[in-house]
Give the backbone structure.
Amino acid sequence: MKIDVLYVADCPTHPAAVKLIKQVLAAEGVEAEIHEVLVRDDGMANELGFCGSPTIRIDGRDVAGESQDARSFALSCRLYPGSKQIGLPPVEMVHRAVLKARQGGGGTSF
């Protein structure tokens, strides 16, 4: 399982996102390395399809799913619909993404 956390410098929720992932992995008994990717500029944001900071991808799939509207990618903060914590996905969303990846529902890697 490959886990990427894409973030911009000084993102206040980046450390909390990494902590959330670690908690979900521990709860599910999954060992995986978390790769933290600093998105440095607009070109990198476009190249990575960066949806805002922090973006969590498991096996190349955004934990929020593929329902993102076509949008321009840029260095910005990210909001997750239905989340009680600003800038973080709901824990259930991360759990679902981990379970899907564990069951072989991988995706495209960036």
Remarks:
- The CA atoms of residues 63 and 96 lie 8 Å apart.
- Helices lie at 14-28, 42-48, 91-102.
